[in-house]
Write a structure and sequence with these properties.
- The complex is a heterodimer of chains A (96) and B (210).
- Chain A is of the alpha+beta class.
- Chain A has a domain at 5-56: Ubiquitin-like (UB roll).
- In chain A, 24% of the residues lie in helices and 21% in strands.
- In chain A, a hairpin with a 7-residue loop joins strand 1 (5-11) and strand 2 (19-25).
- The radius of gyration of chain A is 21 Å and the shape is flat.
- Chain B starts with a helix and ends in a 7-residue tail after the last helix.
- Chain B has helices at residues 3-21, 30-55, 61-66, 77-80, 86-107, 113-140, 144-158, 166-173, 190-197, 199-203.
- Chain B has 210 residues and is mainly alpha-helical.
- In chain B, 67% of the residues lie in helices and 0% in strands.
- The chains are: A alpha+beta (96), B mainly alpha (210).
- The A-B interface holds A 1, 24-27, 30-31, 34-35, 37-39, 42 and B 29-32, 34-35, 38, 128, 131-132, 135, 138-139.
Chain lengths: 96, 210
């Protein structure tokens, strides 16, 4: 059967962001809703769901970095020592 | 609402829940397998709630559900049928949900507030079952195989309701009123199912606690 895939996003509690939960394979939005309700909501684990046809999603997964602009990346900085120092100044203990 | 009618409702829900759960693991699609099994479980939950209402706070709902002989059940023949064929299974689900909605709506106006309250509670969960059944009905209604299954089960569907509520079922389903296969009679398929359903309970010594 070649039914489309629907990506399911769920919100666990009010005020929280939607997070990807998984997917269902369903012929249309109504079936996708019925099945997603069962698989991602029936145990009270979600307060809301988003159903998105996978084909509506634009994939972005290539990241050109030909010129080695390391300073733009988060791993270009080591903040461990500075964080420790800041914590000491503020008088709060760090996570071990 | 008399007790016999409530017992009929509970037995319908128990037996249909049992029948629909026979699809667990073998439904045609994985997603539907989960949904169908969940609905079957809900129906058994409704049966439990009605049995509990019937036996009262000190009574034993399990005893009422499982300690009767097969011929003492008040379920309608529609729910007894062993239908391991998807078109008939969905046709029964849809016919049953339409009939059940008419019955539950009437029960919500029952003079006994405990009955009316429970009917309202069941109705809230059934709303989702109806959505599921209507969705399948919309999808399959044009298929000759599905339509043939609906027509074959139609006399059984009429038997779910007392005569005074059948007119609305006729209108909703759009088939002519025919002679119903009445509650109170049983198909040959109930006894083997009853045997399996009550097997574990019957194997335990009397008074066993679960």
């Amino acid at each position: 059967m070649s039914h489309p895939v629907w990506e399911v996003f769920r919100k666990e509690r009010r005020g929280q962001p939607f997070e990807h939960a998984g997917s269902v394979v369903a012929p249309d939005a109504d079936f996708a809703e019925a099945w997603a309700r069962e698989q991602y909501g029936r145990r009270g684990e979600s307060v809301a769901l988003w159903l998105v046809p996978r084909e509506a999603i634009r994939d972005v997964e290539d990241w050109a970095d030909e010129f080695d602009l390391k300073y733009r990346r988060v791993d270009g900085y080591s903040i461990k020592a500075r964080l420790k120092e800041a914590r000491e100044r503020a008088g709060t203990a760090g996570p071990g | 609402m008399n007790e016999q009618a409530l017992l009929g409702l509970a037995d319908d829900e128990l037996v249909l829940g049992w029948r629909d759960s026979e699809w667990t693991g073998i439904a045609p699609m994985l997603e539907e397998d989960v949904a169908f099994s969940s609905i079957a479980q809900n129906e058994i939950g409704h049966a439990r709630a009605v049995y509990e209402l019937l036996v009262g706070p000190e009574g034993d709902a399990d005893a009422l559900a499982f300690d009767r002989k097969a011929e003492e059940y008040h379920c309608s023949p529609l729910v007894e049928l062993h239908l391991l064929e998807w078109a008939h299974t969905i046709a029964r689900r849809w016919l049953y949900e339409v009939a059940d909605e008419i019955r539950i709506t009437a029960l919500k106006d029952d003079s006994d507030p405990a009955v009316a309250g429970l009917a309202a509670k069941i109705d809230r969960e059934e709303a989702y079952h109806r959505m599921h059944a209507e969705m399948w009905h919309d999808r399959l209604r044009g298929e000759p195989r599905f339509q043939a299954a609906v027509e074959e089960l139609w006399p059984y569907a009429l038997g779910v309701l007392p005569t005074e509520l059948r007119g609305e079922l006729v209108t909703r389903v759009g088939l002519p009123e025919v002679e119903a296969i009445e509650r109170g009679t049983h198909t040959d398929e109930l006894a083997p199912m009853w045997k399996e359903m009550t097997e574990v309970r019957r194997s335990a010594p009397a008074g066993a606690r679960w």
